[in-house]
Amino acid sequence: MILTFKQKLWLILVLVITLSALYLLYGIGPDVNKFLIIYMVNSRYKRLLAILLTAVCVGASTLIFQTISNNRILTPSIIGLDSVYVFIQTIMLFFLGSQQTLKISALSNYCLSLLIMVGFAFFLFKVLFKQQEYSIYFVLLCGLVLNTLFSSLSSFFQMLIDPNDFLILQTNLFASFNAINTKLLWVSLIIVVFVLLISWTSLRKLDVLLLGKDVAISLGLDYDLLVMKFFILVSILISVSTALVGPITFLGLLVVNLAYHIFPTYRHSILLPASILIGMLALVGGQIIVQYVLTLETQLSVILNFIGGIYFILILLKESKDK
């Protein structure tokens, strides 16, 4: 039996709902105290919402980014936003120390990180894009160089930090869904919904951008304006995801390529929800394994980066064989 695209989407949605219910209700039996049930569900639903929100950010941003760059291997992390986030946290801890850093509210840290990362992306695109006659590849190349620069600077300052402070920093830099601030969650939700609404109105234009710059221009699209618009939207989504739970490098590459494989179409009205739902399936399923099977002995980001890294190598090997 061959399923249609809509049937596949509904099937994945049912799987996501099933895993989400399993995550929320695991270990809750009829003999469990009522107040304990309320506490368990209350703590788990915040984690679940953060997981689903991260899947939305990573899936949508990677799909849009691969469309405007016309490359299925690249991810938004190439422009260096993850490295900028690590650099911000490192510099704050280096100059302020652990005591002063802990006094800064989570919301202030979140807003500061978000503004700096989006500002960095805007500078990268607005300045460099114009100087090189609107070459998106030049922007990506500069992003890659700056990514290396910020990574090196972060490593340098981390070598100078007190070992106890370094442990605190490492804890913050690993993507984690185990300690989510509720205020950050609702702020992130508002931002993501706003960005998705803007993106959804331009899905057909993304279909045209997938055909390439020359074809898009010949069909009457303002290519430069559209690429800048989507570049900023991608930057906002990645910044929200990174500032909320930390960097997750290979998740986007994994879910978007799986979406292309399961849904062989150019239509972003199918690919966008598919990427988001597959991301949700991967994150919720992974969190169930990490939390209930491995009993939090490792981080979900470690497993995702391991699987995503292997998948990335397989893609490169496949590309080299095709050539």
TrEMBL record:
Membrane topology reported for the UniProt record: Multi-pass membrane protein
Key words, A-Z: Cell membrane, Membrane, Transmembrane, Transmembrane helix, Transport
GO CC annotations on file: plasma membrane
Protein name per the record: ABC transporter, permease protein possible ferrichrome transport system
Localization per Swiss-Prot or TrEMBL: Cell membrane
Transmembrane segments: 9-28, 48-65, 77-95, 107-129, 136-161, 184-203, 244-263, 270-294, 300-317
Superkingdom: Bacteria
Family annotation (PANTHER family): FERRIC ENTEROBACTIN TRANSPORT SYSTEM PERMEASE PROTEIN, PETROBACTIN IMPORT SYSTEM PERMEASE PROTEIN YCLO
UniProt-listed InterPro entries: ABC_BtuC-like, ABC_transptr_permease_BtuC
Primary localization: membrane
One biological process term in Gene Ontology: siderophore-iron import into cell
CDD domains recorded: TM_ABC_iron-siderophores_like (cd06550)
Pfam families: FecCD
